[in-house]
Amino acid sequence: MSEILNTLSQSSLQDYYDCPRRFELRYLQRLAYPAIETEPALENEKHQKEGEYFHRLVQQHLIGIPAEQINKLANTENLQRWWENYLQASDLRGLRDLSGLYPEVTLSAPLGKFRLVAKYDLIAIGKKDQVTIYDWKTYRKRPKNDLLHIRWQTRVYRSLLVQAGAHFNHGKPFAPEQIEMVYWFADFPADPARFIYKADQYKRDWDALTKIADEIITASTFPKTDEVSKCSYCPYRSYCNRGIRAGDAADAELETEAEELFDINFEQIGEIAF
Questions:
Q1: CA dist., res. 136 & res. 72, Å (int)
Q2: Domain ranges within the chain, ordered by starting residue
Q3: DSSP 3-state assignment of 206?
Q4: Rg over CA atoms, the chain
Q5: Is the pLDDT of residue 240 over 90?
Q6: Closest among 205, 102, 129 to 160, alpha carbons compared
Q7: How much is the pTM?
Q8: Among 49, 18, 84, which Cα is nearest to 233's?
Q9: What phi and psi values does residue 238 have, to the nearest 5 degrees?
């Protein structure tokens, strides 16, 4: 197993949690996608590409490129709206004044026989070394906070920053209480989701991550999920005879977020890279 799969990420962990069979097909067998994930397919693909481009616009702004130079790059209706919402969001206006901004940062740490890897949209260091993880979302529907709170992304991003974020904190690991995670929604700019962190949450998260990593490394079978509703958004559903028609994109954006990290060069990033 470890020779086939060396890293785990929030996406691969979410796949395993949702459906071990999907995890096996995607990350162990690395099969080509035989079915579209959502309908309408072309519209959803365009929306995903616009979301990726929006991330790049924000990154350029955060590294110091003036908004006036970036404005002309927001050249679709969605991009124009998201970019304007970003510039006008009252809770984001002070970001450029913070002592440390680290957009598009990749962190990693050992997790059992794997390495746990996460790519952060933004790590922002504020007063008294408080740190906020920002994640930009271009969802068409605003997910409920309760659902976001239990997603592996929320659990991985906060706990991994405790494990591997000392570089940003004068060489000392962040205490969980120093960390907050914010999902900022480009189409719902006045309604971000905020999740503070505590020591007991961190212990539960890291224990759960360690357990699931051990479970994956020792697994001999990868059963299909019993929640057949998830299969509507799975590109591997034809392998499992779980239906033909794809689900609606707007209802499934949490389910169909693309894996950003697949092959990692650890000689380049080590524990921390940016």
A1: 20
A2: 7-273
A3: helix
A4: 19
A5: no
A6: 205
A7: 0.87
A8: 18
A9: -70, -25
